[in-house]
Structures are given as C-alpha cells and as structure tokens.
C-alpha cells in the first residue's frame, strides 16, 4: 500500500499544482525525485511530527492541499494536539496518510503500535476515514480525497485482502446468507479472515473501506437483529455508530478488533492478529459464541452459504 501511495502522490504533485506533501523523515527517501522537482511543495521537517502538522495547517491556509505522512503513532497520537488545533480549530483541511496500522511494525516495539488511531480521529468532527483493504484501492481513494475539500485520514497497512473492492466506501455485499442471517461488517484488510471464519455459518458478510462516515443506510438495509463488527484497530471503535443507526430496532452487537490490554510482546503482524483473535480461527470462535444456539446449530443450506459477489 505504501508503494501505491508513493506512486500516486508523486503523480498528483506533478499534475495538481495545489497538492503539497509534508514529511517527518519517514518515507522521505521514496520522495527524493519529487522533492527535487517540487522543492516548494515537498517539505521534510525532520523528526518533528508536531511541526509537520503545523506546517500542513499553514499550507492549507494559503490554499494548498497538503498530504501529511508518517507512521500512525507519530502522525496521529504524537501530534494529536496539532491535528486538533492547527488543523481543526483553524478550519485548515488536510489529508493524513499513515503506515504501520495497528501492529504492522510490531518488531519495532510499542512505539510503533497504534491501534487507537481511528478512535482518536473519531473524536474530531467531520473527518472522513478510509482503511483500504488492498493496494489497488489506494490510488482511487487518495485521488478522490485530495480532490475533496474536507479533512481525511487514510490508514495504510502491510496486511491485505486477496482482491480489491473499489467504490466510495458504502457497504458492499460480499456474501449473502439469506433472510434472518447475522450481518458481519468487515473493515479494510479484515475481510478475507472474516470470510474464512464464517464459511458455512448463517452470516451475511459486507465490506467497507470507509468507517467514517459509516454507511448507516446500507447497514439498516442489510442488518436484521444480529450485527458483528470486525475492525483492524481498537475493538468497539464503530460500535457507537452502529448502535445509533439501529437504535429503533432490537439488536445484538458483537464488536471485534484489537484488544485494549497491552500484550507486551514483539512478534509479527500475523502473530498479533492471532493473539487478538483476528485470524480466521479466532474470529470463528467469537462469531459462533455470539450466535444464538439455534443459529449456530442449524445445518447450513445453499441459501445460507450464499454467493461471492
């Protein structure tokens, strides 16, 4: 996903004179040629993430459209006050693009883990959040986001689904298990694991790469009375949105994601998926435990198994 982001941003800098890029050393070497061609619009402030956001706010106030890039914990957590004040408070709009996701660089330790980034951005008002599930989703999302006027956060990962699902982020029906089935909403790169985990279960699976604004209309269309959220960041981040959208209906909600307890382990991204129960086996345990006994024990029919779209 980072390679796709670099290529698309380099092209945008050449095609759109309003586009600017602000870095804090991370990925700077990948933009060397772009910086030489556009020295006034590609700015590397060094290891000063708070300054990076302040500079982006200033560029936005001059009429430029800044893209701000770093690892998620440096971009969102370390510089959150500057996002709140130098961007939001000043009505200065920017596009934040992170790498590292929740635990992509787990081998680098706790400093590089950021499962709470989307929850932090969610405390702000009016932000669009995209969590691509495949590298091929990145160019279109980045171009559309840069062309817009609002503030946005694109969360890139080394984890990926097997195929892209283009679109604006409205819920995409991937597997239809028929009437009365539970609805599972998979965000970003969690989709393949969710599909594997629910194979043969009475669970309809939908996908989105845009948790904010959440497609509440699509949710209301697809949901019956049981909803399962699978998000690749802090568990429960979108629970309030789903609960509000279905407030007029009796429903049960299971919110799966990265746990709040610090594991104090290194390992790989795949290890952390397993430890947090986000691998297919862990998700299946959670889903089958959540489903009512009648639904869990029911023999799947072809309608329940559904079709891939």
Automatic annotation (TrEMBL):
Every Transketolase-like pyrimidine-binding domain range: 1-164
Family annotation (Gene3D superfamilies): 3.40.50.920, 3.40.50.970
An example Gene Ontology molecular-function term: magnesium ion binding
UniProt xrefs under CDD domains: TPP_PYR_DXS_TK_like
Protein name: Transketolase
Source species of the chain: Micromonospora radicis
